[in-house]
Amino acid sequence: MKFLGSLEDPFYFAMRVVVGVMFAIHGTTKLFGWFGHSRAHEPLMIAAGVIELVCGLLVAVGFLARFAAFLACGEMAVAYFQAHAHKGLLPMNNGGELAVLYCFIFLFITAYGGGKWSFDKS
Question: Is the backbone of residue 121 left (phi > 0), alpha (psi -120 to 50) or beta?
Fold first, then answer.
């Protein structure tokens, strides 16, 4: 399937935009109570909402993508260990699958950069 190699840049762009926008949406639910969720009132959750909104948008547009993805990766690692790990070892059993997926996707974006279709053009 060598023909898919020519689609590497548009596929990476689409993945980066979708992941960034979805992460930003998580931030809006915490900060503004959008999409049927209640606003966060605890300082740690408000900080998480700010990180999710800002870093999600930065990753989506590919501006300071490595830095934003690094912060987002760290936030998701902390979220996993604070909110899920005490419920069991496996993410499938403790409800932490999304945190683990976001963590490793953002770790990949940290290493790869914004890609050719970004403001960073890395």
Answer: left
Q: What is the pLDDT of residues 28-79, one digit of tens each?
A: 999 999 988 899 999 999 999 999 999 999 999 999 999 999 999 999 999 9
CA pair distance 71, 53, nearest whole angstrom: 12
**Count of the separate structural domains present in the chain:** 1
Instruction: Give me the count of residues in the chain.
Output: 122
Beta carbons of 63 and 120 less than 8 angstroms apart: yes
Is residue 1 domain-resident?
no
* The pLDDT value given to residue 122: 60
CB 103 within 8 A of CB 94: no
- Indicate the pTM of the whole model: 0.93
Structural domain including 115 reads: 41-120
